What we know:
Order of helices and strands: HHHHHHH
Number of strands: 0
Helix content: 55-70%
Shape: elongated
Radius of gyration: 20 Å
Structural class: mainly alpha
Largest sheet: none
Number of helices: 7
Number of domains: 1
Oligomer: single chain
Strand content: under 5%
Amino acid sequence: MTFLAGPVCLAIGRLLAPLWPTDDSANPWRALAMAVSLAGVVSLLWFVHSAWSAIHDRRTAFSPELAAFFLLIPIVNCYWVFRVIAAYPKDHNAMLDRQALPLPRIRPGGVFVWSSMLLLLTVIPYIGAFAAVANTAVAGVMILKTCAAIERLRSFAALISPRTKPTETYAPGG
Length: 174
């Protein structure tokens, strides 16, 4: 549930941004907006890393670290947000198929694509604040769906993992 703070912080930061004049850098609203926005970005990166860590099985296209890192590179992040957020259900379902796990699949498209598009629209002047508010609701649904899928995956892994205690200890040379 802490991941839901990301879109909320980004929206609050975007709504606070017009409260300061552009020539006054000492305005406390600017510092507050930047701090809240930074918290939102960190939460988003943490969410992306956690989601990709759950499905990383050495056969996924990239590592969780790379998924989060490329979101920090300007211009590249315009494509990458679609690769790591909008295409996440496809990669999640592919991992479930590779492992032959009998778990429900995530339906691709929908809130994952809309959240990616709205996230990009937040940087556009005037409509960015409206996109940030809309993305709060859409990303909230997307995050809840992803977290539910990750929790099912972890519960299933805990269910099938062996819980036996070792009967012998390894002693080198003995």
